[in-house]
């Protein structure tokens, strides 16, 4: 089982970013994909999850309205879109498979830097 994420991104404040997470080694629809981020010097922050089987999503309240999760079952790839970026969104973004409430396999992380 492997999750491979897209490369680092640099954005200006107010812009948007889309990070991908390509899954392999298992049936993509079998597990939720969760998204977690870690800002510099901070702990892990759970953003939400998507069920690739039906596209159902759950968002942490903090991110509702600014984050969108999608999943393309034809390519076994999950995406997170974050709009209206601000400096506080600078972080490493991770995807992870979820089974029975546990985040089991993690992507390598994608650094998103928001700076003018």
Question: What features would you describe in this structure?
Answer:
There is one protein chain. The chain is mostly beta strands and 116 residues long. Helix content is 0%, strand content 54%. The protein has no helices and eleven strands. The protein has strands at 2-5, 9-11, 17-24, 32-38, 44-50, 57-59, 67-72, 77-82, 91-99, 102-106, 110-114. Strands 2, 4, 5, 6, 9, 10 and 11 form a seven-stranded mixed beta sheet that branches. A four-stranded antiparallel beta sheet has the order 1-3-8-7, with no helix packed on it. A hairpin with a 5-residue loop joins β4 (32-38) and β5 (44-50). The model has no long low-confidence stretch (mean pLDDT 97).
Please give a handful of descriptors for the protein shown.
116 residues; mainly beta; seven-stranded mixed beta sheet; four-stranded antiparallel beta sheet
Shape: globular
Pattern of helices and strands = EEEEEEEEEEE
How many strand units?
11
For the sheet with most strands, the description reads: 7 strands, mixed
> Measured on Cα atoms, how large is the radius of gyration?
13 Å
Structural class: mainly beta
* Contiguous runs where pLDDT drops below 50 for at least 5 residues: none
The average pLDDT is 97
Helix content: under 10%
Beta-strand proportion: over 45%
Number of helices: 0
How far from one another are the termini? 37 Å
Quick synopsis:
With 116 residues, the protein is an all-beta fold.
């Amino acid at each position: 089982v492997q999750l491979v994420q897209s490369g680092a991104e640099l954005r200006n404040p107010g812009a948007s970013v889309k990070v991908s997470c390509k899954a392999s080694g298992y049936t993509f629809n079998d597990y939720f994909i969760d998204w977690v981020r870690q800002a510099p010097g901070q702990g892990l922050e759970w953003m939400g999850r998507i069920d690739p089987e039906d596209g159902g999503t759950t968002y942490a309240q903090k991110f509702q309205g600014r984050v969108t999760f999608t999943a393309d079952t034809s390519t076994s790839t999950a995406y997170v879109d974050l709009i209206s970026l601000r400096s506080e969104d600078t972080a490493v973004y991770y995807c992870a498979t979820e089974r029975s409430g546990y985040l089991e396999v993690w992507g390598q992380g994608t650094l998103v830097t928001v700076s003018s």
